[in-house]
Amino acid sequence: MTETSGRVVASADLKEVVDDQVQQHADVVDNHHQQQYQASAEKAIANGQSDVVVNDAQVLDKMGEITKNEMNQTERFYLRKIVAKTCSDPPNLIIYSLIILFGLSSWIAVNGIYSEIPLLGYVMPEGYAIAVDMNLSLQLANIVPFMYFVFMIFKKMIQRKLKPTTTRKSTFDIVDTVSILSLFVIGIGALIGMSFLWNIPINGRSWPFLIMMFLVGVSDCTSTLLFYPFVLHFKHAYSSALLIGESLTGLIASIISIIQNSTPTPLFPFWVFCIIIAGITAISLVSYCLLRFLPYSKKELRRDVDALDEETRELIVKKRPLMTWSTVRLIFFQFLISCSENGVVVSIMPYVFAHYKHHATLLQYAITIGMIISPIASGVAYLVPFYNFFIAMFCHLIWIVGACFLTVIAFNNPNPPLKYSTAFGGFLVVVAILTKGFMSFCKTKEFLHSHQVIEKQDEMIYKKLLLESRKKTEQTQHVEEKLEQIEPISTEQQEATIVPNGEEIIDLPINQKKLTFGERLRDALTQMDLNPFRCAGFGIQIGALVATVTVKLFSDAHYFS
Q: Omega into 414 within 30° of 0, i.e. cis?
């Protein structure tokens, strides 16, 4: 299935195409007017009406004006046609930028603090072993998104038991809104608290720092389950904006760390670094508030859901397929990409270059350029309009081969192929960069594709519901007209229908059809909130966790040394 996305067309190429089309139309119009004038002149002379034939110059001037007007109309027509064809549904740049800023808060705190490990190792009582404790705190923080995911799945069942009927009208889920705002408050508060408590040990351990690290992990890990469903309310083009912002987190954190360590002594201490990251998170909070509450942002929603009541939204969800091929593909590939990108490749990268010349420089190039190429690849994923099944599988195959190749190199330590070769080390850098780029490209493209499919499904269901509603309204009006034509029952007729001896009419029970197991299962699944983007976010979390634990086990077993 081909996904139609917006793409940028160079203004020079666009103008050249328009000019060619306009010139062809102008030549046709010019020949047409010349033939009309010649025929009219010959007819007038044949009838002896020579005064009808006017000066050739006046005729040509008039034809020039007509041709110029038609050329302008034609130019506007072809311009609109070409722009509509090549730039399908271009996003609003303001909203697009706000979503990028919103996505910056997803992992910038964790990435930033990890980039400070060389500085923390000199100060913390644990030394460089603080990285192990940080990783443990981060893994414990994954419990919160797991609990939230389970709660959101059974949220509808809980709401129905507590409040069976509701007339609430809202585009965004109130639970998600409160949760996102809470994450921002927790993240900013933890970073500010870390700036004060990071170097205060308790019983020889950095407990205050690790507690703040746990809270930072809660904020960043849970954001994956909340940010993707939020952007699903907008048009499909904005999924790429969120992923661009998420890709920029590592790059921005690294740039701040490089500036900090650009001199022999750090330009500013760790607590200032925490305040800077907290400031960036605060900018993301402001961006979210503008996207969530500003009326201007609602223009870019998939549909004006505010006009729909709760019952209509539930009907749309019920009529939506429980699991489509695009949803299965999204969850599977997000899990697989997260395993490789956030677990395997990141963990084995030091082992890949360990036995090649200038291994530290090669590792730095692979990580830094990979961070730069990641947001660029996410942007290119939106601009590239073609992405059918075969192209998708080919792109996935490239990063899978690259990740497997790097893993094989790491497993062959301490005797990898072409050991101590600078040229082969450079080749490995290229492989690592291409693998990172295609991972980001495929991740963004899968989200865009799934978002577009969901958007089309909901539009079709909504149109069907409107059609059914109109039919029911027409039927109701028809029945009311028939009832108005029926004469009212007289008093004698009403008395004649009363049951004698005061007996009551008892309604006989109607045999209800028993539901099959499949129908009961479907009914239970429809009561769950199986948001495709939330499921994909949970797959990302599980993939990173599984890969990290697996690589840790292999590392402890000395498979990489």
A: yes
